[in-house]
Input
Amino acid sequence: MSGRLSVIGLGPGDARWLTPEAQAGLAEADALFGYGPYLDRVAVRAGQTRHPSDNREEIARAGAALTAAAAGARVALVTAGDPGVFAMAAAVCEAIEQGPPAWRAIDLAIIPGVTAMLAVAARAGAPLGHDFCALSLSDNLKPWETIERRLDAAAGAGFVLALYNPLSRARPWQLGQAFARLRTHLPDATPVVFGRAVGRDDERVRITTLAEAATEAADMATLIIVGSAATRVVARPGRTPLVYTPRAAERPA
Amino acid sequence: MSGRLSVIGLGPGDARWLTPEAQAGLAEADALFGYGPYLDRVAVRAGQTRHPSDNREEIARAGAALTAAAAGARVALVTAGDPGVFAMAAAVCEAIEQGPPAWRAIDLAIIPGVTAMLAVAARAGAPLGHDFCALSLSDNLKPWETIERRLDAAAGAGFVLALYNPLSRARPWQLGQAFARLRTHLPDATPVVFGRAVGRDDERVRITTLAEAATEAADMATLIIVGSAATRVVARPGRTPLVYTPRAAERPA
Output
């Protein structure tokens, strides 16, 4: 008997970003799995079991959800943002590849969501309006040299950068080093957006320049967008400025 | 008197991906603007005016929506996917920068949505599970040489690539040239996902390799994901294979 596993993106904090498909997936589940703080965002329903887990236990969490689904349950594994972007979908695929053959028979659905960079970009204007990269600054799962090579390649080729996982208590210096690296490729005036806890009550969006960007403005809940040389800032009297990257690579004279 | 302009992402075709915030923005509008086929996806409500426009008229469409908002209307400008990713948000910012000062006083809200690459990735597994780039293959607004430089930089540095606007009747050769370019960086077996019209009745998702990838599999409604050298395919008896990029850059031995 094989059940179903839905890997569900809740979007960033605001419930108005939870899609109807994600709502339906949560409602029909027998069992909910997820990192505790994300699971806390899901309303309690009678008859559903809840299985919160700690952070940085992705493979174990995926395995527990797959085990429950293989036993016949309808399981929802929740993630913030989109499950496919630095979240649980890859861990589930990895667990399936390495796990028992029965896990390949599970009815698996990945339910997309609004990922953090889209929400932060929306608050700032349209900084991702041209070609861009999404890069995790965490060197827990890749060498720091790989991250630097990707910063060089992306900034050097004119991509805007969305930086996920910019820093944590265990990774205090990486963001500063990334900014220093990006300053060798980009003008001092390049716009930088710090989007913290977007969609939550404690949301804070700050716009600065690459020259002024300080690691103190970021924490684990922050997503950072670093513009390209083409990214522009439009002042608005009495309103926050707009940051956008023009659709055309070279602006007409 | 200044109204409000909401730039609303409808997500890909499936209405179950339309967020509650987007639904509310559509419901409260006096006037709806957008590319005709996108506007056709929005239910007709009494008391709302509708202003469809042709494709490739982004700045004129943004200007018309801003003009209506500046005159006091609550305006919704709809886009497919997310407004900030190769869509209307950048055109609106550009129009505001170049337009009359009154446009800077408009209450502007960008309402994020599920962008196509997230929906296609969800259908395939987790191909965007590690660092990735989003790149438009349209050379209408940038030189082809810039696109080739970005393909080289992204593939050479190990990013997965999401290719928007892969081809059209007016741009028939660009995708083939992009595949040829990527073959100089990536193994023949690199997984490639063609996601066409995802979320619509005529959805079609195909998984192939970079060696086998053919431009005939794509059209204007297709989003293509090209893996990195690390991207893997997991066979599932009786089910479509899973394509995923491991969270770790180098897999443990």
Summary: Chain A has seven helices and 13 strands.
